[in-house]
Amino acid sequence: MANLRDVQHRVVTALQRRVGNPILRRLPTQQLLETVGRMSGQPRITPIGGRLVGKEFWLVSEFGDKSQYIRNIKADNRVRLRLRGHWRTGTAHLLPDDDPRARLQSLPKANSAGVRLLGTDLLTVRIDLD
Questions:
Q1: pTM to 2 decimal places
Q2: Tens-digit pLDDT profile for residues 42-72
Q3: Quick one: which of 106, 107, 73, 103 has its CA closest to 91?
Q4: Averaged over 101-126, what is the pLDDT?
């Protein structure tokens, strides 16, 4: 039997995939993460929220290992980011020892509030830009 966290994950990701992400991908100012599909080998683009600090981009995944883009990063951590309308390459690092709730305090407030509210398995990600 599914627990509340599993149900929440399924509902939120279904809404993101069918409603939110298709709209957000089209916004020219939206930050996007491109990973390589671990099964297909095809580019996979996910709207994200985070903050650039020097040559590092920080974000918190709301569903951790359940997120498809996190699974893709585990298979191939080379990624691309669209920041301020320009694509940049980098290497993603999953940081399970980082405190994601504390990290959210330093990231954009609106996105962080959504991640805190909807997330079930928070995971910090740092992308070192080339």
A1: 0.82
A2: 999 999 999 999 999 999 999 999 899 999 9
A3: 73
A4: 92
Q: Find tokens 């940049």 and name the residue.
A: 88
> Would you tell me how many other CB atoms lie within 10 Å of the CB of residue 78?
13
Q: Residue 100 burial by CB count (10 A; 0-12/13-18/19+): exposed, middle or buried?
A: buried
Element (H, E) at 117: helix 109-118
Strands (E) in the chain, as ranges, are 32-36, 43-47, 50-53, 56-61, 78-83, 86-95, 123-129
Q: How many residues does this entry show for the chain?
A: 130
What's the CA gap between 128 and 91, in Å, rounded?
5
Query: 48 near 127, Cβ under 8 Å?
Result: no
